[in-house]
Design a protein that fits this description.
With 298 residues, this protein is α+β, with helices and mostly antiparallel strands. It is built from 10 helices and 4 strands; from the N terminus they run αβαβββαααααααα. The chain has 2 domains: 15-199, no CATH class; 208-298. The chain is 44% helix and 17% strand. The chain has a 4-stranded mixed sheet with strand order 1-2-3-4. α5 (191-199) crosses α9.
C-alpha cells in the first residue's frame, strides 16, 4: 500500500477521495488507416480512458491531487480485419518533485508490438483472474508498472506488490499463444522481459537507487540543490554495477529513455570534475547515447 503519510506531507490539501489511482490522458491515432468508419477508434479511445482512469488498480485510496499523471498514446498501424488491429503504444508517467513546480518523468516507453481485437462500442473491463483481450492485458500491465515505479520512488521497494501484479498479468497473457508482445525468449524488450528485469533479485540495487534518486536527491534539491545533486551523482555508479546482470538491458534502456536528459541537466551545474566523472560513467553504461551527454563536456 502506498505510504499515504508521504503524500499528506507533500500534498496536505486532501479532502475528497476518488476511485482510480491514475490521472491519464488517453489518445488513439488512426491517421494511417483509410477506413470509412472512424467511429470504432473514437469508441476505442473512450473505452481505454474509462478502463485506465476508473479502474481501482490497488487498495490505495488517492485524492484527486494525489493521482499519478500519465499518458497513453495508441497509434493504429494497420487494420488487419474489421475487428483486428496492429498498433504501437507510447506510455509516459511523471511525479511531482517536493516543494517545486517541476515534475520528473518516471516512465517514457514505446511498445511497438501490440496486436489486439476490438469491436465498436466494446467495453474494456479488467479482472485480475481472467483477461480475454490483449489490449486490456497490455493496458493493465502498464498501469501496474506506472504504479510500481511511482511507489518505488517514494519508499524503498514500495512498488513490489504492483510489480508482482504486473508479472501475474504477463503470466496470464503468455498462455494466449496469439497475443503479441509477451514472449520472454525471443524479445528482450517484451512486457515479460521488462517485469522479469524489475523482479530480478540481482537488480534490487537499481530499485534502491531509484528511491535514492527521487526521494533523497530530487526531493531535496528545493531545500539544498548542492546536496540533492551530490546525492544523485554519487548514486549513479549503481548503473555500472548492474550492467552485466542478465536481465538489466531493458531496464537500463528504459532508464536512459526516461532520465538521461534530466541527469545531464542536473550535472551541468556540478563542478568540472563531477561533470567529467558523470560523463565518463554514463558514456560507459550508455555508449549509444553519447551524443546526449555532450553538454557535460563543455
Amino acid at each position: 500500500m502506498k505510504y499515504l503519510w508521504i503524500f499528506l506531507l507533500l500534498f496536505p490539501a486532501v479532502i475528497q477521495i476518488h476511485a482510480g489511482e491514475l490521472n491519464a490522458k488517453v489518445s488513439v491515432n488512426s491517421d494511417r488507416i483509410q477506413s470509412p468508419n472512424k467511429n470504432v477508434f473514437t469508441s476505442m479511445e473512450q473505452a481505454m480512458n474509462r478502463l485506465i482512469n476508473e479502474t481501482q488498480w490497488s487498495g490505495a485510496n488517492l485524492a484527486q491531487n494525489e493521482k499519478i499523471d500519465c499518458s497513453f498514446s495508441l497509434t493504429i498501424l494497420e487494420q488487419v480485419s474489421d475487428n483486428s488491429f496492429k498498433s504501437e503504444l507510447f506510455i509516459q508517467s511523471r511525479r511531482p518533485v517536493y516543494n517545486a513546480s517541476y515534475v520528473t518523468p518516471t516512465l517514457n516507453y514505446r511498445d511497438t508490438k501490440l496486436e489486439f481485437e476490438y469491436r465498436e462500442n466494446q467495453t474494456l473491463e479488467f479482472a485480475s483472474t481472467t483477461v480475454d483481450n490483449n489490449l486490456v492485458a497490455a493496458l493493465a500491465f502498464y498501469c501496474q508498472l506506472i504504479l510500481a515505479l511511482d511507489f518505488d520512488s517514494f519508499s524503498t521497494f514500495g512498488g513490489s506488490g504492483f510489480y508482482r501484479d504486473a508479472r501475474n498479468m504477463a503470466t496470464q497473457a503468455q498462455s494466449n499463444a496469439g497475443w503479441s508482445g509477451w514472449s520472454a525468449f525471443d524479445d528482450n524488450r517484451s512486457r515479460t522481459s521488462i517485469i522479469n528485469a524489475f523482479l530480478d533479485e540481482a537488480v534490487k540495487p537499481y530499485r534502491e537507487f531509484w528511491y535514492t534518486y527521487h526521494r533523497k536527491g530530487l526531493d531535496e534539491m528545493a531545500a539544498n540543490p548542492d546536496r540533492g545533486r551530490t546525492t544523485i551523482l554519487n548514486a549513479l555508479p549503481v548503473l555500472k554495477d548492474i550492467r552485466n546482470v542478465r536481465n538489466s538491458e531493458v531496464l537500463l534502456q528504459m532508464f536512459a529513455d526516461c532520465k538521461l536528459n534530466e541527469i545531464v541537466s542536473i550535472a551541468s551545474k556540478a563542478t568540472a570534475e563531477e561533470k567529467k566523472n558523470t560523463y565518463d560513467l554514463l558514456r560507459n553504461v550508455f555508449p549509444a547515447s553519447s551524443g546526449d551527454l555532450e553538454p557535460l563536456r563543455k
